Automatic annotation (TrEMBL):
It holds the Pfam family MS_channel_2nd. This is Small-conductance mechanosensitive channel. The keyword Membrane applies. Mechanosensitive channel that participates in the regulation of osmotic pressure changes within the cell, opening in response to stretch forces in the membrane lipid bilayer, without the need for other proteins. Contributes to normal resistance to hypoosmotic shock. Forms an ion channel of 1.0 nanosiemens conductance with a slight preference for anions. It is found in: Cell inner membrane; Membrane.
Length: 202
């Protein structure tokens, strides 16, 4: 028994700095779980999202913090990534592209968290999304990890990708409601000749 304790003491003494950093990382991880995650859940609740969407938000945030914590702990304990430097760099590059490129499916998850922090995209708001010459509009029924669900005036349901909601011009609560889907050019009123002359004079 004394031999085991002696070996453990020697091991702890040798790796004292690693143990201290590990404890600090775990304290930060627990602090994030206690402080940041409840705030994210509170934002999801204030956005009036469905219970399923709130659970997905919470679990996704916990997964991200857990993966980051494990990666930091591996670095603290000297896991040798030198032989995998090319592979790890490629994975990081691909992950970055996947999370932020507009054509990527995973970028919808990144956009979901951005939309979560925007009060303009609260459930029940009426929005109009301008996509080139086309548009679509409706009430925000829910925001999922990948799509924003809109309900038109005709009770039609539109599932629109989250990343496109962020990258397209969006009008929040417009004064006039148009059709659910159409061409924005059809809604532009023609300018009368008299109005054109007055505009030129001004």
């Amino acid at each position: 028994m004394n031999d085991v304790m002696s070996r453990f003491t020697d091991w702890a003494t040798f790796y004292m700095s690693n143990l201290i950093v590990t404890v600090l990382v775990l304290i930060i991880f627990m602090g994030v779980n206690r402080l940041l995650l409840p705030q994210i859940e509170k934002l999801a609740t204030s956005s009036k999202l469905s219970e399923e969407a709130r659970k997905k938000t919470y679990h996704t945030a916990r997964l991200i913090t857990g993966v980051i914590t494990i990666a930091v702990l591996l670095l603290v304990w000297g896991v040798d990534f030198s032989g995998l430097i090319v592979l790890s760099t490629s994975i990081i590059a691909l992950t970055g592209v996947a999370l932020f490129a507009s054509w990527s499916l995973l970028s919808n998850i990144t956009s979901y968290f951005v939309l979560l922090f925007q009060n303009s995209y609260t459930k029940g708001n009426f929005i109009r999304i301008i996509d080139g010459d086309n548009y679509m509009e409706g009430y925000i029924a829910d925001i999922n990890l990948f799509t924003t669900r809109l309900i038109t005036k005709d009770d039609e349901e539109i599932a629109y990708p989250n990343n496109l909601v962020l990258t397209r011009p969006v009008i929040i609560n417009p004064k006039q409601h148009w059709q659910g889907i159409g061409k924005s050019t059809d809604k532009q009123m023609p300018v009368q000749p008299e109005q054109a002359r007055e505009a030129q004079k001004d």
